[in-house]
Amino acid sequence: MTSVEINPEQLRTAASDCDRIHSSVLSTLKTLRTAVDAEQAPWGNDSFGKKFADGDKGYIAVSKNLLEGINDLATTFGTFASGQREAADELSNADTGHSNG
């Protein structure tokens, strides 16, 4: 028979780690957005610049998708942290006979 052991304190530690990752990714994203926004359109408005920047695979669309993906990554780590804390609380309450429900 297989057994599983879950330590609520280790879950809380993991949640704190996920919170740090969440904050770090958001901070990096803010720095990146500031740098990207500051450049505006360095490629110019000529035909080569428009080809580089416009369209589904152009710089503007790709950078927007990249920034959204990084934000989603940060959100995911924040969600992990919340879930880990909730699970730790539920396990602690089950061990002590208390219930939140």
Alpha plus pi helix count: 3
Strand content: under 5%
Please write the string of helix (H) and strand (E) elements: HHH
Q: Which structural class matches the secondary elements?
A: mainly alpha
Spans where pLDDT lies below 50 across 5 or more residues: none
Helix share, percent = over 70%
Mean pLDDT: 91
Radius of gyration: 22 Å
Described by the principal axes of the CA atoms, the overall outline is elongated
Distance between the termini: 31 Å
DSSP summary, beta strand count: 0
Describe this structure in words.
By secondary structure, this protein is mainly alpha-helical. The chain has three helices and no strands. The chain has helices spanning 8-39, 47-53, 59-96. Helix 1 (8-39) packs antiparallel against helix 3 (59-96). The longest helix has 38 residues, at 59-96. The two termini are 31 Å apart. 8% of the residues are buried. The model has no long low-confidence stretch (mean pLDDT 91).
Short précis:
By secondary structure, this protein is an all-alpha fold. It has three helices and no strands.
List keywords for this structure.
mainly alpha; single chain; 76% helix; 101 residues
Q: In terms of topology, how is this protein built?
A:
Layout: H1 8-39, H2 47-53, H3 59-96
Helix pairs in contact: 1-3
